[in-house]
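Box 4.2: Ligand-aware structure prediction
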Amino acid sequence: MGDAIVDVSTWLVLADEPAGADGKAWLTPPGAERSESRADWWLFKPAKTGLVKATGGQHATEYRRNDDRVERIASQLARCLGLPAAEVRLARRDALEGCLSRYAIPDGWSMASGDLVLAEFDGYVSCANDPKVKERSGHNLSNIQVLMDGLFGPPFGAFSDVPAFDVFAGYLVFDAWIANTDRHAVNWAMLYRGNDVCLAPSFDHGSALGSGLRDTGIPADVDAWCARGMAGRFEGGRSRTLVDLALDAVQRGGPKAGEWLRKLAAITPEQSREILRGVPGLSVATSTFMGTVLETNQRRLCA
Ligand SMILES: Nc1ncnc2c1ncn2[C@@H]1O[C@H](COP(=O)(O)OP(=O)(O)OP(=O)(O)O)[C@@H](O)[C@H]1O
Ligand SMILES: [Mg+2]
């Protein structure tokens, strides 16, 4: 059965999301706004468009990107891997298609971005002006490991006693698997409650799996495309593959970090393909490409 598309046209707007780009808003179903809990808060992220460059006197044209569908796919892949990540559904808000990302912060906790918590490190360059800058000085595994020393994963499920860095290593294994090149320091965060601090669940995976590729741009050589997936959001990352960064993090972490590779190795191509098949609107060419990317990167990581 395909994924349901939730119609959120009548949902209430609780707040606009100031971080990140364009038209996102926190919504809740009618009636839930009276709840003390934020468990029913969902971030609506409209589908994005890309531009096809003009050639020979023609106007540039817009096309629909797959970021929202990829967010849905990524949330299900994360679940398969057992990784703590925001739950995502496909949605429609009046004429706008998009996705919903469920508030991933447990009641009583608040969130601060990696950017904010790294600010105290010597030489760290803040994302304030542009989170997308490549090779961000100070956004590296050494600083992140120091920052997370003695802290644990998200305070629910199986992670509250797993070292935070070992869980973060899982985020990097996940990124390398799904070809997510956008793990800048505003795309991971820490959670706070009084004196308690821990790693937040993973979120914002819409740039993965070549979500901006059009059918006509799907690469014939998927191996070569995967090998070009660089960790550009990290210091030194322009010349470092996502796979290399992930394996480095696993190596630096404790025994729990190594478990991510064993969990990934156990995922079958059929599990990924079933998830891809469930997402409406993906062309066969795109879905086949994404399936091949997942198999290729799984092989590279688990070799
Ligand atoms: N599920 C979630 N739970 C809690 N906070 C979230 C969640 N998803 C996103 N956020 C917060 O909202 C901000 C913006 O969301 P997100 O990162 O998904 O969008 P974005 O950076 O604008 O993405 P894009 O580049 O895809 O437009 C995040 O930096 C984070 O602070
Ligand atoms: Mg983001």
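In the box above, the bound molecule is magnesium ion. The chain has a mean pLDDT of 95.
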